[in-house]
Amino acid sequence: MSDVFDLVVVGAGSGGVAASRRAAAHGARVLIVEADRVGGTCVIRGCVPKKLMMYAAGFGQAFEDARAYGWTGSTGSFEMHRWADAKAIEIQRLEGIYRKMLTDSGVELALGRARLLGSGAVAVGDRTVQARRVLIATGGAPAHDALPGLSAAMTSNEVLDLRDVPASLLVVGGGYIAVEFASILAGLGAKVTLAFRDTWPLRGFDNDLRQRLAVALQARGIALAGGVALMALEREATGFALHRQDGSVLRAAAALNATGRTPNTQGLGLADAGVQLDARGAIAVDADSRTSAPGLWAIGDVTHRMNLTPVAIAEGRAFADTEFGRRPNRVDHRTVASAVFTDPPIATVGLSEADAARLGPVDIFESDFRPMKTAFAGGAAHTYMKLVVDGLNDRVLGVHMIGADAPEIVQSLAVALTCGATKRNFDRTVAVHPTAAEEFVLMREPIRRHAKAPPVVA
């Protein structure tokens, strides 16, 4: 069989698989190359196993709540090795599904490391193939360069393979990976300390969500060590020591490096192929995912535009539709919803209050309450919701929530935001009662208004 393809995709993660299958559906002859397991970060060592671990952690609180609802004997102890074995079986099953999807779509799979040779040539081990188009979808990996000593700590890869819950855990970082695993491991019984430089975790999210998450994490027993620069992580005989700029030292039996991720660009031959990288080391692309080199495109985390699995999938399909389906398509990154699977979870779509206020007059609507389920059990946890509304045309610019079921609720509201819904559309919607989601259509008066924020003077 000829080694000339219409498309070679480098990386069989969610974005690469979606792009290859869509291109094949349009009639292209496609080869996809993978150096590790099919399914990529999300399926193998990211979103899927992380959420399975989150479900495991959630049963502890469920047992507590059950007693308030009349259940007796609803206690248990967590055995992480049993979870790990079941998780491994499930991930293997999902990888098999991904492989079958490629086969059923007519996409050829080649296992090995790819290297660009220029002029459409790609080396895969000892094999060299020719492609009219090459799509790079190699994703990202945990970064180790934020401070000295991080390479000795676990990353999000290794923490998902734990077979025992550490007695104490030091989580280094304040982003979504850091707060998710801090929340999950605390729910499984570890004594967790979360160390980060900023005042609150989750920089870049709406400030009201950040503050409330900090309170919620502390209520779950997580020690927050924020507001101080981090200097170095040191391996000790009994665990790890994190040295901070103020001279303080944080210690724990285990450490998790959650300081961010870096694009997987090493060893691909990008420089030889003429592919430019941006200041962060990601592949620079235009709105159609084209790189600086002819015949080469890139999608997903390796471009560092918006590092979310559904975004990589959407970018991959848009590329395939544009290049092979004669249906030009682009991904609008402005209305992409995202979730943080802490306890309680966060979900958000659109502009934060601060970002919207910088653009023009803004009305802010809020609801803060104890959900029925929590209140009945005597819990103190709150749900908080916010709508950010354009003060000129009434369009909803942002939806933010922290509380039970936030990801499911905001996913639905993202449709409304994408369609340009106004606050009046929300007001005219009849509530479903009793639900938490109904609060989004019952906010009548703004809590505060912002005039356009003055420009920042350097």
Rg over C-alpha atoms, rounded to the nearest angstrom? 24 Å
What is the CATH superfamily of the largest domain? FAD/NAD(P)-binding domain
As residue ranges, the low-confidence spans are none
Shape: globular
**Named CATH architecture of the largest domain:** 3-Layer(bba) Sandwich
Q: Total domains, how many?
A: 3
Number of helices: 13
Structural class: alpha/beta
Look at the structure and give the CATH class of the largest domain: Alpha Beta
The major pleated sheet works out as: 7 strands, mixed
- Say how many strands there are: 22
How much beta, percentage-wise? 15-25%
How far the N terminus sits from the C terminus, by CA atoms, comes to 62 Å
CATH topology of the largest domain: FAD/NAD(P)-binding domain
Helix content range: 25-40%
Average predicted local confidence, pLDDT: 95
Could you please describe the fold and organization of this structure?
It is a single chain. With 458 residues, the chain is α/β, with parallel strands linked by helices. The chain has three domains: 4-141 and 262-333, FAD/NAD(P)-binding domain, CATH 3.50.50; 150-259, FAD/NAD(P)-binding domain (3-Layer(bba) Sandwich), CATH 3.50.50.60; 344-447, FAD/NAD-linked reductase, C-terminal dimerisation domain (Enolase-like, domain 1, 2-Layer Sandwich), CATH 3.30.390. Helix content is 32%, strand content 24%. It contains 13 helices and 22 strands. It has helices at 14-25, 40-45, 47-68, 80-105, 156-159, 176-187, 207-219, 270-273, 309-324, 353-359, 372-376, 406-418, 423-428; strands at 4-10, 30-34, 108-111, 114-118, 121-124, 127-136, 140-142, 168-172, 191-195, 223-225, 230-236, 239-244, 249-252, 254-257, 261-263, 296-298, 338-340, 346-350, 362-369, 383-390, 396-402, 448-450. Strands 1, 2, 3, 4, 5, 6 and 16 form a seven-stranded mixed β-sheet that branches. A six-stranded antiparallel β-sheet has the order 17-18-21-20-19-22, with helices on both faces. A four-stranded parallel β-sheet has the order 10-9-8-14. Strand 11 (230-236) and strand 12 (239-244) form a beta hairpin. Helix 3 crosses helix 6 (176-187). The chain is globular, with a radius of gyration of 24 Å. The protein starts with a strand and ends in an 8-residue tail after the last strand. The model has no long low-confidence stretch (mean pLDDT 95).
